[in-house]
Amino acid sequence: MVVAAGDILESDGIGRGQRSVASQRADELTDEQCMTRLSGPEVEAALSALYDRYSRTVYGVGFKILGNRSLAEELVQDVFLKVWRSAGTFDPSQGSFSTWLYRVTRSAAIDLYRKRTSRVRQVPDGARHIAAARDSSAGPQEIVDESWLSWRVSRALEVLDAPHREVIELAYFGGLSQREVSERTGVPLGTVKTRTASAFRRLRRELAVGDTSREAIR
Amino acid sequence: MRCAEVHPNLAAFVLDGLEPEEAAEIRRHLASCHRCRDEVRELRKVNRALEAAPPPADPPSYLKDGILSRVRAERLSTSDKEEPQGSSIEDRTGSSRTSRFNRLKDLRVVLPSVAAAAIVVFVALGVFFGFLREEPPVATIQLVPTPREAVGLEGYWGVAEIRPQPSGNQQVELKLNNFEEPKPNSYYELWFVSGEERISAGSFTSVGEGETRVLLNVAPQARNYRTLLITEEHVDERPTSGEEVALKGKVP
After folding, report:
1. Domains defined for chain A, CATH in brackets
2. Chain B residues inside the 8 Å CB shell of A168
3. Mean pLDDT value across residues A36-64
4. Between A146, A169, A178, which is nearest B56 by CB?
5. CATH number at residue B183
6. What is the residue range of B243's domain?
7. How near does any CA of chain B get to the CA of A141, in Å?
8. How far is A209 from chain B (nearest CA, A)?
9. How confident is the model at residue A4 (pLDDT cuts 50, 70, 90)?
10. Considering the domain boundaries, does residue B71 fall inside one?
């Protein structure tokens, strides 16, 4: 039977207005408070707030270590569903939410890495074999070794407010000079330089704090 | 130049973002100031750490809605299962008063029904697991070469079969015939396209003659994207689904 792909799945468009109002309240909660609300009636608002705070990091780290946007998207979905389902295993006395979420992300990334490998192996006898496009990408041990630094730097960047993050992203990732950043954003050159210096100071501080929590992820 | 004038520019200097003459002045100052050299050394550590940062990117907006929908659906499903089922207290009390004779009589009526129900369940499970093993596709899409790619090639075609997954994703099984190996440092990417919008279903490579089968997954939202493209992408560039289209198909 041939059926249009458009008929396969149900659409989603439920309760957007209600959700945004509830999310505003959850935005004022700490990560740990949001976690305690994942088993109650405010689960969607709490999960939504955590998603807003961490999805860029999970997606970015996922893309970096899995090397594929589809897999990174699958990772984001797996991780936040695990956050909801495994909220009871989070113990704030054992470490921060960010460190716990990193462990969840790392474990999900390794699962996806193995799943990708098994997808490649699901070729029946007699058919021509295939190879994943990025077979040379990091294996599970490399994921463990490299992803924590990626996570820390991403979190440090997320801690910056939007104007400071913008100058770093344009200068570092965009390769723009300070003058070009100024022209692009319309912010005076002196302010761009001040923001760059201030952002570097903040990043230095955040990364130094991250160093001290290295043992927490073991 | 004094330290107080140099300091605000050191981060920009480390980022290589100053004008050439400004950078030259900083270098001259650093040659004679160990305190500012130490500061630059520290700032370079931050700069090196940024190399580990993932490129700034937001996940697609539909992901969040999808996750919250799953949570909502699973919560509803769980609460449905927790609804009390079966007989009421009165029923249970009544049955406890049933005589031994009546219970035996009931058993004679009930046992064949239970056996019949067991057979139905057994058959249903067999059918269900049979489907799990070889679920038929809900959409089959013929993929044909674009004119440029097809020149001089024989038996070069593809089929995409789509199967919905319990996770909400769609599994796409590609069956490709005589699909050429991509150029060095390149790979193939499957896209679902609608106008200017596109969603990647993942990437793969292939090895020429014969049949190649590839299993990929794509997000639920791809159901509204009715054109399929297989493009050739270079490993060092961001995939664009732009120019090197190898196969193309339309969802019927």
Report:
1. 23-123 (1.10.1740.10), 160-218 (1.10.10.10)
2. 50
3. 92
4. A169
5. 2.60.40.200
6. 139-250
7. 16
8. 13
9. very low
10. no
